[in-house]
Amino acid sequence: MAEAGRLETLFKEYQVWFLTQIGAFIMGLMLVIDPKNWKALTPYSGYFAVGFLITTLALHPLKKLLPRWMLITKLNRYRQEFGVAVFSFATIHMICFIIKRGSIMKTLPYALHPAIGPVLLVAYPILFFLAISSNQYSVKKLTFVKWKKLHRYVYLAEAAIILHMILVREKFWATVLFTPLVMLQFIRIMKK
C-alpha cells in the first residue's frame, strides 16, 4: 500500500513530464518495433516538435500581455517540460531521417544541404543544450543570468526551424504556425 502511495505522489509530481514525453516514447517504441514506421512518424514527430516549440515560446509573451489569465499563468509553470518535449520529438524526427537514409554515415552529407543544415547544425544542437540545462540544478550552477542568456538561443533555433520548413516545402504550415508566434513576440518587444 505504501508503494502505491509513493507511485501516486511521484506521478502527480511528474505528470506533466509524463504527458509531454509519452508521445515521443511511443514513437520511439514504434521505431524499435519496426524501423519502417519512419515514413508515418517523420511528419508527426516534426509537427509535435514545432507545436511544443510554439507553445513554449508563446507562453511568456502571453503571460506578459495577459497577466490575469490564470490558464496562461498555470501553463507557464511547465515551460521547461514543454521545451524538453521539443527536443524529444525533434530527436524522433532526426532518427526517422537517419533511418530513411540508412545510417548516420549516409546522413552526414546532408548536413550541408540547405534544407537540412539549419536544423542539423543549428537548431538541434541548441535544443540539445537547452534540454539538458532545463532544470533547477543548471539554473543554480550557471546562475540565472547566464542560464537565461543560454536559453535565448532558442530564437536562433526558431529561425532555423522556420527556414527548414520553408525549404522542405512546408511553407504553408511554417506561415500558419509561426506567423502568430512572431507577431506575438514582436508585440511583446514593442510593449517593453
Provide a descriptive summary of the structure in words.
The chain is mainly alpha-helical and 192 residues long. The protein has helices at 2-33, 38-65, 70-76, 79-101, 104-107, 117-132, 136-142, 144-151, 154-167, 171-190. Helix 4 (79-101) packs across helix 6 and helix 6 packs antiparallel against helix 9 (154-167). It is globular and about 50 Å long. The model has no long low-confidence stretch (mean pLDDT 93).
> What is the quaternary state of this protein?
single chain
Strand percentage:
under 5%
Strand count: 0
N-to-C SSE string, H for helix and E for strand = HHHHHHHHHH
Mean pLDDT value = 93
- How far apart the termini lie comes to 53 Å
What general outline do the C-alpha atoms trace? globular
Low-confidence sequence ranges: none
The number of helical runs is 10
Number of individual domains: 1
Specify the structural class. Answer: mainly alpha
How many strands, which pairing sense, and closed or not: the largest β-sheet? none
Q: What radius of gyration results from the CA coordinates?
A: 18 Å
Question: What is the share of helical residues?
Answer: over 70%
